[in-house]
Amino acid sequence: MTSALTGIRVIDLTNNQAGPSCGQMLAWLGADVIKVEEPGKGDIARTSLSDRPDWDSLFFLTFNANKRSLTLNLKSPNGKEIFRRLIKTGDVLLENFGPRVLDRLEFRYEALKALNPRLVYASIKGFGTYGPYSEYKSYEPIAQAMGGAMSVTGFPDNPPTVTLACIGDSGTGMHCTIGILAALMQRHTTGEGQRVEVSMQDAVLNLVRVSLRDHQRLGKAVERNGNQLGSMVPATTYRCYPGGPNDYVFILAQQQMWY
User: Fold this and answer.
1) pTM of the model
2) Residues carrying an active site annotation
């Protein structure tokens, strides 16, 4: 039985989490994902939080399972030529390099489109490729802070808090996956690929849009409320049996439930 993306080839140049999580989702849907890494170094996630010096880290494996692997030196003439041949066979290019890295390597969108007009060129950036912060890099906590999520996470008397759910990295990867799928769908009509771009800041802002609504509605910054959901009672966490550090239950009762 074939999967939804059987026959689609993704050339995955990404590293760390935001990009690799996107490539992995496409692989789960059946795409042939080829992860391209720098010889001798590879994805920095291979050694991040590694348990053994001679093994890839579980962090890396968590986001790169179900992919094929290839090493290429994109700075060498031979590596560039191999990459161009690979691009001609691909449907999607996925990258999350720093600002203008691929431009300096002579692989900007226009150049690759000339090689393969059907290519979907997908980029994940911290703050996009235009605007006042476009030259800055980003990581998970920066995305959460700049996207507004930290300002509404935590308890009123405590500082803004990072959530470990990785909404900045994997959340951005999910948004990029949606954009790529839409571009592939549109290609059925136009016969051509297009550029897809997702910024980590925008992805977090979208995920926290309910609080953004409250900011606009109330005319002031939204206060941190811990686990309290709105003004309903009960609508928060309560300690429960057997009493361990994570043994809590979230109880939410709306007005109509009392009748």
Assistant:
1) 0.93
2) 169
